[in-house]
Amino acid sequence: MSANEMLAFETNCHIFDGCGFPAPGLNSFLFEPLFTVGGIEFNKPMLLAVLTTVIVIGFFWAAFGRAKVVPGKLQMVGEAGYDFVRRGIVYDSLGKKEGEKYVPFMVSLFFFVWIMNLWSIIPVAQFPVTSIIAFPAALALIVYVLWMYLTFKKHGFVGGLKNITGYDKSLGPILPLAVVLEFFSNVIIRPFTHAVRLFANMFAGHLLILMFTIASWYLLNGIGIAYAGVSFVMTVVMTAFELFIQAVQAYVFVLLATNYVQGALAEHH
Amino acid sequence: MNPLAVLASEGELENPLLPPLPELVIGLIAFAIVFIFLGKKLLPKINQTLDERREAIEGGMEKAEAAQAEAQQVLEDYRAQLADARHEAARMRQEAQEQGASMIAEMRSEGERQREEIIAAGHAQIEADRKAASASLRQDVGKLAGDLAGRIVGESLADAARQSRTIDRFLDDLEAKAAAGATKAEANR
């Protein structure tokens, strides 16, 4: 594989060379297979997803594998992260008693999503795995199944339907309309927005960084060099901003998942 | 040109919102592995550790409270003992003072008594000596006077009883005179 194929843009193209700006686009999110394992063609995002698994497990193994009452540095960091999700997200909306059961799921979800986002600014990787819709979709699907399961388990079939559709007799004549809208909003739109919110944020963030990175290189000719400097500064700024957005989006994703679980467990009203 | 860019230019790119199946499956599996490891193994472990820590902290606090209470008790005991000891010391000191005073008084009275005894004994001795001397003197003087008188009158006053009577009468007279003289001297003074 040549360097040309590894990079997301043409390397021999500069302004005033009669070469158009190689703007990043959908093609920046497509990867050629790196290798094939058992008939599955592994590309870069898949590899990064697998690495995410390794890193999350590896970190928590190192931190909690030999957990001590008096924690070491790594264990303290792990505990801080664990406590952030447990207290900051799960206990806040589900309460300590009911929420405890869902803590492992939400902790796994948060760190899995966060590390997948984080690849965006890791040198060499430099691609947020969650900007491939399949990964947020897979996670949103798990949350969706969990939500449906809890709803019908808690309220039974009719009660579950009522919970999902926000059935409320006091609405009177607009009840059918409200039921239809709620059904669409909860059952069809919700998992879609759940996945797309994460996907689109990471997609756009990656696009922005790419744009400024490519521009920094493309403008490196004649008077364009001054603008290239600006573009490079913007690349750095956007990278720092992405670092923040990655954590926020992971937080939002898990917060929403927790809210859905809470909605499923809440009494119908 | 990049082959992907070629694809893009030919409009064969997939809709970015349509999830490709291999990625979907790998995402599910990857997350499942993370969830299983964390949920079944690592997080229960840290929970157990956190519980242990909380217990240790609570136990430690209880222990510390107990130790503090014990220390307070010991301090109070110690203070009470100290106060007792001070009291006792003061009492003993006073007792010793009193004892010392009484001993001094006792010894003084004993000494006085002994002095009196010695003085009395001395007086008695002197009296006895005086009496003995007086008796012996009287005898000697009587004998000498008798001898002298016998020589002078040439008559042996053999009769001891008569002789003694005469001597006694003489001496009594002498004593009476001496006493009278002494009284007179006393009166003249």
TrEMBL record, chain B:
Q: Where are the transmembrane segments?
A: 20-38
Q: Which of UniProt's keywords are assigned here?
A: ATP synthesis, Cell membrane, CF(0), Coiled coil, Hydrogen ion transport, Hydrolase, Ion transport, Membrane, Transmembrane, Transmembrane helix, Transport
Question: Which molecular function GO terms apply here?
Answer: hydrolase activity; proton-transporting ATP synthase activity, rotational mechanism; proton-transporting ATPase activity, rotational mechanism
SUPFAM superfamilies for the chain: F1F0 ATP synthase subunit B, membrane domain (SSF81573)
| Coiled coil segments of this chain | 47-99
Q: Which domain of life is it from?
A: Bacteria
**According to its record, how does it sit in the membrane?**
Single-pass membrane protein
Say where the protein is mainly found.
Answer: membrane
This protein's GO cellular component annotations are: plasma membrane; proton-transporting ATP synthase complex
List where in the cell it is found: Cell membrane
Task: Give the protein's biological function.
Answer: Component of the F(0) channel, it forms part of the peripheral stalk, linking F(1) to F(0). F(1)F(0) ATP synthase produces ATP from ADP in the presence of a proton or sodium gradient. F-type ATPases consist of two structural domains, F(1) containing the extramembraneous catalytic core and F(0) containing the membrane proton channel, linked together by a central stalk and a peripheral stalk. During catalysis, ATP synthesis in the catalytic domain of F(1) is coupled via a rotary mechanism of the central stalk subunits to proton translocation.
PANTHER family this protein is in?
ATP SYNTHASE SUBUNIT B, ATP SYNTHASE SUBUNIT B', CHLOROPLASTIC
How does this polypeptide assemble, per the annotation?
A: F-type ATPases have 2 components, F(1) - the catalytic core - and F(0) - the membrane proton channel. F(1) has five subunits: alpha(3), beta(3), gamma(1), delta(1), epsilon(1). F(0) has three main subunits: a(1), b(2) and c(10-14). The alpha and beta chains form an alternating ring which encloses part of the gamma chain. F(1) is attached to F(0) by a central stalk formed by the gamma and epsilon chains, while a peripheral stalk is formed by the delta and b chains.
Name the protein family: Belongs to the ATPase B chain family.
* Protein name, per record: ATP synthase subunit b
Organism for this UniProt entry: Streptomyces klenkii
